[in-house]
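Late entry, evening session. Most of the bench is empty. Finally got around to the prediction I had been postponing all week. Sequence below, unchanged from the version circulated by S.P.
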Amino acid sequence: MAERLATMRVDYDCEGFDIDALAPTWHEQLARWLVEAEAAGVAEANAMVLATTGEDSRPSSRTVLCKGVDARGVVFFTNYTSAKSHDLRVSRYASVTFPWYALHRQVHIRGPVELVTPAETQEYWATRPRGSQLGAWASAQSAVVRDRRTLDDALEGVTQRFAAEAVVPAPPHWGGWRLVPEQVEFWQGRENRMHDRLRFEVDGHDRTWTVRRLAP
């Protein structure tokens, strides 16, 4: 494998991607690429890799699902007592990457984070399957557990607890985070590793956006 790694390579033969091909805003362009990824059959097209840092300044990353995109930012939901939420409360800053390998595309977003409103959490919570709702109650996300049986027993207990309830309420320790972009980079693979990188950058004072091309 060590020898094979050096020769593993995919040649990109995608069409060019220039500034005049961009949508007027970063969120419209992201929505456009999300639609194209889904249409192309990309599994979990809304999956994004979330990177955070904790009190020790050491980075950590994991995959989450994007559940909202608009001019305000990108939104995902999680347990507020999880490791990722702890990191976000400490640093108040994060980055995400949408890795659409099959399309030779990526989108990188970085900026500060904020909690979504309780109303936004409730609106999304109502769309979740009941099993996912019960799982959010049963799992003390990121906590060490003795074995799989512990998790199964917790889920069974929660299932019985809400068995007579038509609607499962959202846990008080669960909700959404919004990443408010300062930079959004659209990356398109090109031949000879001369990739197209177009980055939206916001001015911190008046929130105006500028687009710049970056060297690959």
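Two things to note before I forget:
The two ends are 27 Å apart (CA to CA).
The longest strand covers residues 105-115.
Will write this up properly tomorrow.
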